[in-house]
Amino acid sequence: xxxxxxxxxxxxxxxxxxxxxxxxxxxxxxxxxxxxxxxxxxxxxxxxxxxxxxxxxxxxxxxxxxxxxxxxxxxxxxxxxxxxxxxxxxxxxxxxxxxxxxxxxxxxxxxxxxxxxxxxxxx
Length: 123
Fold this sequence. Notes:
By secondary structure, this protein is mainly β. The protein has a single domain (3-115), classed as Jelly Rolls. It is built from 1 helix and 8 strands, in the order βαβββββββ. It has one helix spanning 23-29; strands spanning 8-10, 34-42, 45-55, 66-73, 75-79, 83-86, 91-94, 100-115. Strands 1, 2, 3, 4, 5, 6, 7 and 8 form an 8-stranded mixed β-sheet that branches. Helix 1 links the parallel strand 1 (8-10) and strand 2. The model has no long low-confidence stretch (mean pLDDT 92).
């Protein structure tokens, strides 16, 4: 299995406006170690839910910034020359063009906001 095949990435929008999104229920039902679901559109952006354990590959997004917000757990964001450690209720924006990877050895639940055209695995 290739590195990218172990990720479960669903880019179709799951919830329409005025439809309740129950993050805790989605977390409880998740059986995968690396799950990424596009929840909704907000103008020209999307909000994605990440339920992850382990590490993602190094990548970048050439034309879009990416915002990470930790709901539960601990997220490490590695840059080429810097490391960010985020805990619950902390967020970070990775600017476009910056090579990065995310890691969550103990598992984490995160929300991500990015342009709707972003390819989650990178450009």
